[in-house]
Write a structure and sequence with these properties.
With 201 residues, the protein is α/β, with parallel strands linked by helices. It has two domains: 1-29 and 107-201, P-loop containing nucleotide triphosphate hydrolases (Rossmann fold, 3-Layer(aba) Sandwich), CATH 3.40.50.300; 36-106, no CATH class. It has helices spanning 17-26, 34-41, 49-56, 69-78, 80-103, 117-120, 137-148, 152-160, 165-171, 182-200; strands at residues 6-10, 30-33, 110-113, 129-134, 174-177. The chain has a five-stranded parallel β-sheet, sandwiched between helices. Helix 2 packs across helix 5 and helix 4 (69-78) packs across helix 5. The chain is globular. Catalyzes the phosphorylation of the 3'-hydroxyl group of dephosphocoenzyme A to form coenzyme A.
């Protein structure tokens, strides 16, 4: 049975969503990460790959059968129609897998990690609270450049496809500041965990 209390965790690229989710998981929350689900769907033998190859052609699959992410990224950032076609394949499958994972949750509450929670339009009604992970845009750029070896311009192009920092903060019920280091982050997560436990009773 799905716990009645759930949190939608979101944030721009490079804000530290995975780090925060890991901290909540260590405290006993059930984590359902839509990016992890999407990667599984587009891995070798992933459930979405036959539809993706049928829609976009075999050039978008690597030799092992996984999605060629670099090729697809280039396409969808330059072609909004292609993005919509990809989303039409992935989003229903991600939603079904996410709901199944939520149904199987055993923690006191569930945290759904959804990078595009605000953009999706439907998630706000599916969770009890929205938690935004926030940091400066310069921090975002620096982290993604280090992690993904993209240029600053490439990172900012990705950021431009996401909602603005101001809108994300305006729509959040709770905010974690991830500009001050791990210990400060840990303290904020601990406080929110205690609050969520109380709210979930």
């Amino acid at each position: 049975m799905t716990p009645a209390f759930s949190v939608g965790l979101t944030g721009g690229i490079g804000c530290g969503k995975s780090t925060v989710a890991d901290l909540f998981a260590a405290l006993g929350a059930t984590i359902v990460d839509t990016d992890v689900i999407a990667h599984a769907l587009t891995a070798p033998q992933g459930a979405a790959m036959p539809a993706i190859v049928a829609e976009f052609g075999p050039d978008f699959a690597q030799p092992d059968g996984a999605l060629d992410r670099a090729r697809m990224r280039t396409l969808v950032f330059s072609d909004a129609t292609a993005r919509a076609r990809l989303e039409a394949i992935l989003h229903p499958r991600i939603r079904a897998a996410t709901e199944a994972a939520g149904q199987a949750a055993t923690g006191a509450y569930v945290i759904y990690v959804v990078p595009l929670l605000i953009e999706s339009g439907s998630w706000r009604e599916r969770v009890t609270r929205v938690l935004a992970i926030d940091c400066s845009e310069d921090t975002q750029v620096a982290r993604v450049m280090q992690r993904s070896h993209l240029s600053a311009d490439e990172v900012r192009a990705i950021m431009a496809t996401q909602v603005t920092r101001a809108r994300r903060l305006a729509e959040a019920d709770d905010v974690v500041d991830n500009d001050a280091g791990l210990e400060a982050l840990r303290a904020q997560v601990q406080a929110l965990h205690e609050r969520y436990l109380a709210l979930s009773l």
